[in-house]
From TrEMBL:
Protein name, as recorded: Thiamine-phosphate synthase
Species per Swiss-Prot/TrEMBL record: Thomasclavelia cocleata
Function recorded in the entry: Condenses 4-methyl-5-(beta-hydroxyethyl)thiazole monophosphate (THZ-P) and 2-methyl-4-amino-5-hydroxymethyl pyrimidine pyrophosphate (HMP-PP) to form thiamine monophosphate (TMP).
Catalytic activity: 2-(2-carboxy-4-methylthiazol-5-yl)ethyl phosphate + 4-amino-2-methyl-5-(diphosphooxymethyl)pyrimidine + 2 H(+) = thiamine phosphate + CO2 + diphosphate; 2-[(2R,5Z)-2-carboxy-4-methylthiazol-5(2H)-ylidene]ethyl phosphate + 4-amino-2-methyl-5-(diphosphooxymethyl)pyrimidine + 2 H(+) = thiamine phosphate + CO2 + diphosphate; 4-methyl-5-(2-phosphooxyethyl)-thiazole + 4-amino-2-methyl-5-(diphosphooxymethyl)pyrimidine + H(+) = thiamine phosphate + diphosphate
HAMAP family reported in the protein's UniProt record: TMP_synthase
Amino acid sequence: MFYKEMLKLYLVTDRKWLNGRKLTDDLEKAILGGVTTIQLREKNLSNEEFISIAKDVKKVCQKYHIPLIINDNLEVALATNSDGIHIGQNDIPASIVRKQIGPDKILGVSVHNLKEAFQAKIDGADYVGVGAIFSTETKNDATNVTLDSLKKICDNIDLPVVAIGGINLDNISKLKDINIAGIAVVSAIMKANDITAASGQLVRELNHD
């Protein structure tokens, strides 16, 4: 079952920040700090390796009852029976992915404008990810989306919107007047010295405490 609240603090993984630590350990720390969804993103692994990691991450997610979303890879999502999949504009069309995963899995789609957001809804998306909102070192090919464009999407689409791209404690306040369901982050958590504390600080900012 998908709930909008699952999107509040959405962590996208990047193993380059591990520095010898175990991914599952870091993800557990992040969840304890307040992360509400994990997206497993692996661009440079074979499907066999990706599936192996996904199975380990799934155990952590199930322990804490939060969704595991697979980035871009339909085969891995199906093989691991993950809670859902997130795709971009250049991946398999969302309408085809929806048919493959069925009606009960979570489908997220990256969009950059209102037209793409409307199409994602037609194709069966449960939520859209909008970005990059701020410059990011995680994706060198990211297309920037202005705060005005983000607000326009949020105000006109009947789907939860997750803002992504370079979001951290220094700029998160710029999003406070925009009706997003949550934020997706990578380095703001993954490269932190204290992952649990970093996650908790972001949650507090999202709650405007």
